[in-house]
Target: Methylthioribose-1-phosphate isomerase
Amino acid sequence: MTTRQQQSAVLALQWTGHSLRVLDQRQLPDTINYDEYTDAQGVAQAIASMRVRGAPAIGIAAAYGVVLSVNQHYSKSNSSWQQQVQTDITTLANSRPTAVNLFWALTQMKSVLDGQSDDPLPTILACAKKIHADDIAANYKMGELGADVLANATGILTHCNTGALATGGYGTALGVIRTVYARNPIKIYAGETRPWLQGQRLTVWELAQDEIPVTLIADSAAAWLMKSGAIDWVVVGADRIALNGDVANKIGTYSLAVLAKQHDVKVMVVAPTSTIDGAIENGDQIEIEQRQQSELLPDCYTDNTYVSAWNPVFDVTPAGLISAIVTERGVAFNPGVNGVVGLIEA
Ligand code: MRU
Model:
């Protein structure tokens, strides 16, 4: 089966024409189970509960959530439909704080909605479908651009899941890895990505389906892997990129970048331009999501007043630790010097 055919098997999101089917990623790789949503509140809950996750996929899901809201509330006789849709947009925006793709997609949908006088549904649906299709196209473009940069790579370590499950299809960092491997079958390593294990449960699953060999490592094995000389690049995605090139991504990315510097390993970040937040100068302005202690703490400590857990699920890697940021519009080399402004000004 080809890579593109494989993607249809693992799509995170499917628009049915009247509802959004969301693959429950919490159950992977053991169970493939799609939940069907017919309202925006349900989609917001699917995002907050991690059924769908990954920055671009969250944005696409939210866009379809707005479609469901318009479908539910719009009628010629309902003079309050716009306020009701706005309430749903606010609920969607509150589902998770860090990935800017969510807010980017909602802004796109809102601006299309604001211009509508007649039945807004066809136009708003077209906008969501375009956001979805553009993301897939961007992934394929980034795959090519990133693979060009990695032409002489010998081994790659990736983190979290940045594949078809995290995007409209194909993937950001994992899209680059798929393209690199098709050109030159080099060694791929994936970190487990605690505490949600996106690397162990999702990335390994996606790559195995594509028949791309992958070696799983405990997150804590990364330094020793680098010391062994097995990799020359760390390739990751992003949830939000500041104008100076600082990158918020899955917790542990910053650790990898620090380790990479020590071992002369380069760091590549792969993300569509919808992940660049043009409103923030640097990573200090990025809200880092804190999730419940229960995601880390064993049950036996739930009521123990002496034990607590600190559970930030993203961190910020300073631009100076990154060698290249790959977008569908081009590559920013050494973003610590020039940032990424040039990629969104074009
Ligand atoms: O908490 P998650 O699983 O939504 O975090 C996902 C990541 O951090 C990904 O690396 C990022 O969204 C890039 S996905 C293309």
Summary: Residues 121-149 form the longest helix (29 residues). The first strand starts at residue 13 and ends at 15. Residues 1-8 have pLDDT under 50 and may be disordered. The CA atoms of residues 57 and 167 lie 4 Å apart.
